[in-house]
Amino acid sequence: MGEIISMIETFSIELAFFFLFGTICIGTAISVVFQKNPVVSAVSLVFMFFSLAGIYGIMGALFIATMQVLVYAGAIMVLVVFVLMLLSQRAENLSKFLNNPFKVVSLSLLALFFFFGLYSALNMGVPNAYQSGKGYKTTESTSVYQYPIQGTSSVSANGNAATVGAATYLEYVLPFELISILLLVAVIGAVILAKKRLGEGSEAKDATL
Amino acid sequence: MNPLISGIPVPFFLGLAGILFSIGVLGVLIRRNAVVIFMSVELILNSVNLVFVTFSKSLSNISGEVVVFFVMAIAAAEAAVGLALVIAIFRQKKSANVDELQEMKW
């Protein structure tokens, strides 16, 4: 533990943002597990995804941070909340929460503060934010990929979309294509699982789902 | 292996990922609502993503971040199929409580 402490020479802004986002991350993760109302845990999970995106931003993995917000906080959470709303028998808990103005105002202030922190982390806390990665070079008019860099088989991890994309499409083409097949199979399976039985007739009409 | 990522020691990230993983496992074990169990699985996958990005940065090798991209795709597929399963089960049993699913018990 002592050597870890001695690694930190100065209390930098990155470290402050790491502790901020780490605390929010752990707190909201605990809230996901221990909240009684599933809708509240879903909202906590959204905050947890956003704070993890902030941590990725601090680490300089900007592409991963973007994908975290797009895929997890966007697509997957829409799916989860949609299913929760379809299944929910306890929607009155949420409306009771929304009727309390103090709670709503404090939650809004917390969200505002949180997104301001995320914005500042992406602006100030990110090292190499305005540096082009190795393996990718912009001249006056053109962008050039240099891959592989001499003597290595992998590009340096600078975390922008260009380097990750170069590694994906040059080194991991086969897994990428397999992922597309897997997504297709998953979508077809989801449709087959969630559709109504075709011959169900009149009783399916007044069923709630 | 670089011990610092933008001024933060690597063990900090790994510790955070470990805590998140433990919370996710706890949620899978103690919760009864199927959708909350799926959310806990997302917590576990996110902690693994954090470990991948940490070592990708620490070892200066981009492959870890490519794997994170794949994990995200797998998580999306898992969420689609799993939630469709939850809806199909809810239509049969009128409940999303995993305690009431005992058809495969023997």
Automatic annotation (TrEMBL), chain B:
Belongs to the complex I subunit 4L family. NDH-1 is composed of 14 different subunits. Subunits NuoA, H, J, K, L, M, N constitute the membrane sector of the complex. InterPro entries: NADH_UbQ_OxRdtase_chain4L/K, NUOK/Mnh_C1-like. This is NADH-quinone oxidoreductase subunit K. GO terms for cellular component: NADH dehydrogenase complex; plasma membrane. Pfam families: Oxidored_q2. One of its GO terms (biological process) is ATP synthesis coupled electron transport. Its EC number is 7.1.1.-. Coiled coil: none annotated. GO terms for molecular function: NADH dehydrogenase (quinone) (non-electrogenic) activity; quinone binding. The lineage of its organism: Bacteria, Pseudomonadati, Spirochaetota, Spirochaetia, Leptospirales. Its main location: membrane. It is found in: Cell membrane; Membrane. Keywords: Cell membrane, Membrane, NAD, Oxidoreductase, Quinone, Translocase, Transmembrane, Transmembrane helix, Transport, Ubiquinone. It is a multi-pass membrane protein. It catalyses: a quinone + NADH + 5 H(+)(in) = a quinol + NAD(+) + 4 H(+)(out). NDH-1 shuttles electrons from NADH, via FMN and iron-sulfur (Fe-S) centers, to quinones in the respiratory chain. The immediate electron acceptor for the enzyme in this species is believed to be ubiquinone. Couples the redox reaction to proton translocation (for every two electrons transferred, four hydrogen ions are translocated across the cytoplasmic membrane), and thus conserves the redox energy in a proton gradient. The chain crosses the membrane at residues 12-30, 35-55, 67-90.
